[in-house]
Each structure stands twice: as structure tokens, then as C-alpha cells.
Specification:
Layout: H1 2-17, H2 23-39, H3 49-60, H4 62-75, H5 83-116, H6 127-156, H7 162-200
Helix pairs in contact: 1-2, 1-5, 2-3, 3-5, 3-6, 4-5, 5-6, 5-7, 6-7
């Protein structure tokens, strides 16, 4: 459907084109995700693997909403936003960005399979596999953010023990890998849609 394609285009711009989020893109993303979740409940939208991935992508924006709520609720009891509220909001936004980027790449990869290997990949492009992929992505990102949150907690407690050093090294390594993976995903997505675009262009 055209609305879903527009939503994906918005999300690609928000997470894989813009260098950082801003108020306008965040608001548009939240509105687009709310509309998409309603749209996916319609009987007109067939239950396919792509729809499952898009649904999970839209649900990821719930984390953005929760980060805004945490800033308001936890920060309303003092002068400005408390360090705990700021750390929680940052972790939620990180989880949202990472889940969204990987899911967008999964949608792009599926589009590549549909375009170039429609028959060979049919057994892979199932609703069950899409749900499994979505769950794995959420679990991995949740583990990543739990490590970041623990690292922030240990830093805040001024701990200098071996546990703090291990968490600090693991968190630093994971942040570096996340940055590198983000760049690779951008390159891969551009390549995939470049191939798809020119394969569909009239020769």
C-alpha cells in the first residue's frame, strides 16, 4: 500500500539519512507509527512477513513516547530533568533507534529477495520467520541497552572495582560496534535500493 511505502520512506529518512533526530522528525515519526499501527489492523492489509516487520518497526516508537514520559514524570519532581530520568530517556531512544535501523534493513533485504529471488526465497519470507527475526532483534537490543544502563549506574555510584571495569570495557566496545554497524547498514540499504531501482527502470 502507498501509505506503508510513505511510512517506510519517512523512517528511512529519520533513522538512516538524518545524522541526528530532531523535534520535527520525531513528531512525524510518532504520528506515522500511530497511523501505521491502526492501518495494519485493517482487513485490507494482508498478513505477510513485510507487514510483520513494519508492525514491529511502528511499535518501536512506543519507546520514544516512553522516553518523553520519563523526562516529564521523573524530571517534574526537581529543578529540571534528573540524571536518572535523563539516562533512562537516553537508553529508550537508543533502543528505538537501533531496533528501527535493523528492522528497516530487514525490510530492505526482503525487498531485495522479492525483486531478485522471488521463488527461491519464498520459504524464507514467511510470517513465522518475520516474527522470529523481530523477537531476536528486540532481545539483542534489550540486552545491549541493559548493559548500557548498568554501565551508567556503576559510573554514577563511583564504583572502581573489577565489575565496573568489565562493564565499562564491554559498553565501550559495544558502542563502537553499534556505530560501525550503523554505517554499514546505511551503505547496505543504499546499495539494495540502488539495485532495485535500476532493475525496475525501463531499459
Amino acid at each position: 500500500m502507498k501509505d506503508l511505502r510513505r511510512y517506510l520512506a519517512l523512517k528511512y529518512i529519520q533513522y538512516l539519512v538524518l545524522s541526528s533526530s530532531n523535534a520535527v522528525s520525531t513528531l512525524l515519526g510518532l504520528l506515522g507509527s500511530a497511523y501505521t499501527m491502526i492501518l495494519l489492523q485493517s482487513a485490507k492489509v494482508s498478513s505477510k512477513s513485510t507487514a510483520v516487520l513494519i508492525s514491529s518497526l511502528a511499535q518501536a516508537d512506543i519507546l520514544v513516547f516512553l522516553s518523553l514520559v520519563s523526562d516529564v514524570v521523573l524530571g517534574s519532581f526537581g529543578a529540571g530533568v534528573s540524571p536518572g530520568a535523563s539516562a533512562l530517556a537516553r537508553i529508550l531512544l537508543t533502543a528505538n533507534a537501533h531496533v528501527s535501523c535493523v528492522l528497516l534493513s530487514c525490510v530492505a533485504f526482503e525487498a531485495y529477495l522479492i525483486t531478485f529471488l522471488p521463488v527461491e526465497s519464498r520459504s524464507l519470507r514467511t510470517v513465522r520467520n518475520a516474527r522470529l527475526v523481530s523477537r531476536v532483534i528486540w532481545m539483542l537490543v534489550a540486552t545491549e541497552c541493559a548493559l548500557f544502563l548498568m554501565d551508567d549506574h556503576l559510573r554514577g555510584s563511583n564504583s572502581l572495582g573489577l565489575l565496573f571495569q568489565l562493564f565499562s570495557m564491554a559498553a565501550a566496545l559495544l558502542r563502537s560496534l553499534s556505530y560501525i554497524l550503523g554505517i554499514l547498514l546505511r551503505i547496505i540499504n543504499v546499495y539494495i535500493y540502488y539495485k532495485i531501482f535500476f532493475s525496475m527502470s525501463p531499459r
